[in-house]
Give the backbone structure.
Amino acid sequence: MEVPILKQGPYLIASIQSALSDNDMVRLRDALVEQVGRFRSRGVIVDVTALDVMDSFATRTLRDLGRMIRLRGADTVIVGIQPEVAYTMVQLGLTLEDIATALDLEEGLALLERKTTAPGNETSSRGR
Amino acid sequence: MRRAPVDAERQQLHSTTSLGLASARNRERVLEETCIPIQSDGDIVGARQNGRGLAVQLGFSPSDLTLIATAISELARNILLYAKRGKIILKLVEQGETRGIIVTAHDKGPGIPDISRALEAGFSTSRSLGLGLPGVRRLMDEFEIVSDVGLGTIVTVKKWAK
Ligand SMILES: Nc1ncnc2c1ncn2[C@@H]1O[C@H](COP(=O)(O)OP(=O)(O)OP(=O)(O)O)[C@@H](O)[C@H]1O
Ligand SMILES: [Mg+2]
């Protein structure tokens, strides 16, 4: 199952449409990490609204994705974690740790906007 | 045979599943049963969707359905990762007034040398999170694991519809 990746201005938006196998998940991670360079994107959103399960593998892969993208110089926001999925992740002891999350696509874009244009961010990236 | 510390009920669960017989005290009537071979990563998705589809018939809450699907996912992945192949058996059962789902993960892989360590959060031989087994134990109402080095592993978990 290929996940469509949409380019919107300086951001990439990956909207997961249905359940993903482990290999699909890894392919998505690698595609985003590559495309952030190709399109010189400043932020990535992964919409997981359609995922009915976030198990240890999915969580770990999303976490790695966020860290790899940070190493490439861009920000990641995971959006759309459903209430039951959040509940199960807490029960399992799974966290996305330092990877940002937002309620939905709209909130995710707003968060990226703040992250990529924040004065602090300017200072650190341009050295002023 | 090594097994995790178990209480009387779990002991009974073990004898019920491994012998395929219902003991006199713990009579579980099987309403429906499916066996899903696990040998590729697509089978993990198939197994958890199948489990959700079965469990929904018992009127589990959306949260419970997600817990069950996630537990199946973890068990199926362990089969694929550590034993290469095996099977997941899903059973809808009735015991007196209560109904529930029993998930059995079965493989003839390398087995687990130290079960109590494998059940510790953070223990992993594949440099993963080591949260699968301890997590599944927390998600489900009953949990039992039987493993024999060189012979394989059987994990049996149950969730009762409240
Ligand atoms: N079916 C199995 N056969 C052999 N060994 C197993 C099996 N299932 C689990 N194990 C062993 O138990 C350990 C703990 O399993 P658990 O699922 O808790 O963590 P993990 O698979 O290492 O990581 P995670 O599930 O968090 O990605 C594994 O690392 C492995 O050594
Ligand atoms: Mg595991």
Observations:
- The longest helix of chain A spans residues 22-38.
- Chain A touches chain B through 23 residues (CB under 8 Å).
